[in-house]
């Protein structure tokens, strides 16, 4: 005979497992319903996206920097997976509670939907409609959970040892999962239909020829050495660091840009067709993220096509502060609500600050700001490179703090002189003999005049510089090293066009960019 307490234990364990499963199934049903409802609102209103964005906004700067260093451009995927895991654990726990207290469990499931709604309403550009997907998902999750645990509590089964036939419960769970999956698939398909319009608008966009074409890349600007970053970075390899968990897919046919604010005597509203009718300028510019650690990967060089921002501002009646203009800050706002503040004086000082529409001869990729973004040579991206642009507002630094400034970053940040060793890689084992040590150096809008390398703390040796393509791009360099067997440390430093040597003291990225020398340690093997 099986002891009675053993039977009760087995029965209790089965009920707990079924309760946890009910919580997970209910959560899946709620998320599927919310994703489907978000199609009628906007992608940013979906609960996972809204909660993830709220987490990003409230994460301390040090944690954000750690995430970028650790996960790189996969930081958003890591965040989404983390939130999903937390929700799964919460759902399982809610299911366990619902087995004993169905109303309390259902209420907790609905409360998660309320949290999602609050997060959605807290997003920039949010309206009351943004709360609806999470509320709908919470209601579906609560109802599903209550029905599932109620089925568990019904009398029946064999001698009452299981409140509902296990096969019957399994069929109920399978039906719920199937229905939820179909809802999720419908949401994806309908959402893809909206994205398809944006994709078609990009595919059908023919960029006009530039009125001011960039000169050809000089012969010798790209050394084409194995392991060395190419002079022009392909769009697919260009770094992406932003807060958008879902890349905005903007329909070029409905896009508009507004320009207004202090000192604007003639406010402007332009659609893409009107913007493209203006003279376009082509210019090579290296962009750098302020989160780039010394020797880091978050810098890239591209050929940009766009309208001169200074011309647009002058047309609107804007004067820089040096000419008596009242506004010293240009606040760019993206379609997802991101704000980036740029000094008016900088964008009007003669540099090729652009409202870019093209990258490397093609329309901007969605991930890099289609249809229009800002590109300002010499400034870190967080104070200049607004993607998915929709508004330009003139104000002052005293009156308004942009997104990153409210999170401990400096309001103004020129790119600091930096250099990087691309080859040989750290911890590599090159063969003894002549080794090409090569990399890139950048000091946008000042240019690079000199690069030096040293081995094992010895004297600095001047590297050979590739041909320069102006002062707004990085510059490749190479130094022939006679490598002897054993471990060695290589360091590099650059001097900008103003004669300023790259500082050796290592500092972090906050508040206005990292400093220090990049070094790699290699173990040279005997021939």
Describe this structure in words.
This protein is an alpha+beta fold and 527 residues long. It contains 10 helices and 18 strands. The strands form 4 sheets. The chain has a 5-stranded mixed beta sheet with strand order 2-1-10-5-6. Strands 3, 4, 7, 8 and 9 form a 5-stranded antiparallel beta sheet that branches. It has a 4-stranded antiparallel beta sheet with strand order 11-12-16-15, with no helix packed on it. A hairpin with a 6-residue loop joins strand 1 and strand 2. The longest helix is centred in the middle third of the chain and has 38 residues. It starts with a helix and ends with a strand.
Order of helices and strands: HHHHHHHEEHEEHEEHEEEEEEEEEEEE
Strand order of the largest sheet: 2-1-10-5-6
Distance between the termini: 77 Å
Strand content: 15-25%
**What's the tally of helices?**
10
Number of β-strand runs: 18
What is the overall silhouette?
Answer: globular
Largest sheet, if any? 5 strands, mixed
Which residues sit in consecutive blocks of at least 5 with pLDDT less than 50? Answer: 4-10, 156-162
Structural class estimated from helices and strands? alpha+beta
Helicity level? 25-40%
Tell me the Rg in angstroms: 28 Å
Question: Please, what is the average pLDDT?
Answer: 92
């Amino acid at each position: 005979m099986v002891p009675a307490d053993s039977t009760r234990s087995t029965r209790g364990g089965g009920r707990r497992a079924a309760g946890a499963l009910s919580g997970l199934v209910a959560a899946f049903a709620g998320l599927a319903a919310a994703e489907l409802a978000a199609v009628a609102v906007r992608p940013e209103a979906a609960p996972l996206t809204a909660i993830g964005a709220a987490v990003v906004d409230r994460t301390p700067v040090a944690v954000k920097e750690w995430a970028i260093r650790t996960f790189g451009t996969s930081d958003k995927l890591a965040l989404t997976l983390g939130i999903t895991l937390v929700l799964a654990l919460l759902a399982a726990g809610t299911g366990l509670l619902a087995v004993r207290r169905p109303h309390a469990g259902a209420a907790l499931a609905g409360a998660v939907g309320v949290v999602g709604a609050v997060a959605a309403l807290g997003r920039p550009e949010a309206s009351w409609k943004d709360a609806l997907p999470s509320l709908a998902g919470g209601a579906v999750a609560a109802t599903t959970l209550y029905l599932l645990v109620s089925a568990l509590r019904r009398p029946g089964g064999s001698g009452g040892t299981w409140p509902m036939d296990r096969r019957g419960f399994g069929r109920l769970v399978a039906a719920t999962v199937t229905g939820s999956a179909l809802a999720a698939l419908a949401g994806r398909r309908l959402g893809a239909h909206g994205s398809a319009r944006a994709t078609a608008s990009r595919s059908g966009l023919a960029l006009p020829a530039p009125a001011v074409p960039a000169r050809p890349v000089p012969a010798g600007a790209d050394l084409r050495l194995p392991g060395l970053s190419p002079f022009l970075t392909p769009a697919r390899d260009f770094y992406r660091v932003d807060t958008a968990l879902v890349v905005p897919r903007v329909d070029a046919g409905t896009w508009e840009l507004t320009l207004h604010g202090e000192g604007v005597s003639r406010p402007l509203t332009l659609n893409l067709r009107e913007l493209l009718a203006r003279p376009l300028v082509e210019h090579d510019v290296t962009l750098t993220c302020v989160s780039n650690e010394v020797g880091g990967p978050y810098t890239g060089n591209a050929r940009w096509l766009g309208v001169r921002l200074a011309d647009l501002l002058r047309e609107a009646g804007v004067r820089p502060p040096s000419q008596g203009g009242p506004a010293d800050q240009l606040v760019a706002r993206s379609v997802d609500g991101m704000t980036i503040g740029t000094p008016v004086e900088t964008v009007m000082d003669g540099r090729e600050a652009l409202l870019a529409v093209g990258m490397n001869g093609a329309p901007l990729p969605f991930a890099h700001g289609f249809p229009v973004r800002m590109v300002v040579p010499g400034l870190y991206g967080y104070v200049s490179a607004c993607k998915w642009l929709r508004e330009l507002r003139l104000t002052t630094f005293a009156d308004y703090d942009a997104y990153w400034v409210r999170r401990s970053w400096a309001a103004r940040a020129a790119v600091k002189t930096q250099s990087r060793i691309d080859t040989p890689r750290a911890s590599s084992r090159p063969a003894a003999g002549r080794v090409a040590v090569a990399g890139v150096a950048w000091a946008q809008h000042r240019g690079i005049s000199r690069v030096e390398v040293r081995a094992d703390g010895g004297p600095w040796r001047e590297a050979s510089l590739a041909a320069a393509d102006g002062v707004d791009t990085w510059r490749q360099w190479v130094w022939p090293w006679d490598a002897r067997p054993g471990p060695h440390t290589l360091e590099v430093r650059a001097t900008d066009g103003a004669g300023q040597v790259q500082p050796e003291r290592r500092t972090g990225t906050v508040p206005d960019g990292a400093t220090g020398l990049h070094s790699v340690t290699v173990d040279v093997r005997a021939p």
